[in-house]
Amino acid sequence: MPTSLTLSFDPQVEVTCATDHERALDHLRAVQQLRRDVSAHYAELRAPVLATTRALTRAEREHLDPLRQVEDAIEAAILGYETRTTTETQAAIAVALADPSRPVPEVTPLVREGAHTRTTYRAEVQDKRALVRGIVEGTVPLDAVEPKMPVLNALARASRNEFRLPGCTLATQTRVITRAE
């Protein structure tokens, strides 16, 4: 495949008679074949890159997964200790406040410099119908959901002109397809 490719096809084609129609179909066939050839050429070039990327990702995961398991176990032990210690300290403070004769325990910070805890929050959808109901009722913002276009497009292809979904319209595009020679 040449590194620079210039097309000798005029993108402004006018078809006004049967001869123009035949000529336009021949041009279209040539352009579509060229597009297929270019796509095949780049797919061939991309294949080893994709294989290498997959191999690198697999190798990285093989090295990182055991580390993540150890990291998770250490974090769980640390958080367990911090929770137990905090609970015990709070209980001792409550006892000391209830009984003034007892000394108030000294509170020492658990986390040393350079380390801290971070709580992250994320949503997990448990009931899609309830989520949609919340959108309808206005308690959930519309931006909370994104349509799955592959699913909607499959429904449109399956039902064609009978496609009827609330909030959706059927869009069509007619193309001329030529066979590869």
Which of globular, elongated, flat, extended, rod-shaped describes the shape?
Answer: elongated
Helix proportion range? 55-70%
What does the largest sheet look like? none
Mean pLDDT: 89
- Number of E strands: 0
Which consecutive residue ranges, at least 5 long each, have pLDDT under 50?
none
* CA radius of gyration: 33 Å
Q: Termini distance?
A: 18 Å
Helix/strand order, N-terminal first: HHH
Class by SSE composition: mainly alpha
Q: How many structural domains?
A: 2
Number of helices: 3
* Proportion of beta-strand residues: under 5%
Structure description:
It is a single chain. The chain is an all-alpha fold and 181 residues long. It folds into two domains: 11-108, no CATH class; 123-171, no CATH class. It has three helices and no strands. It has helices at 18-98, 128-137, 149-159. The model has no long low-confidence stretch (mean pLDDT 89).
Q: What's the topology here?
A:
Elements: H1 18-98, H2 128-137, H3 149-159
Summarize the structure.
With 181 residues, the chain is mostly helical. Helices cover 56% and strands 0% of the residues. The mean pLDDT is 89.
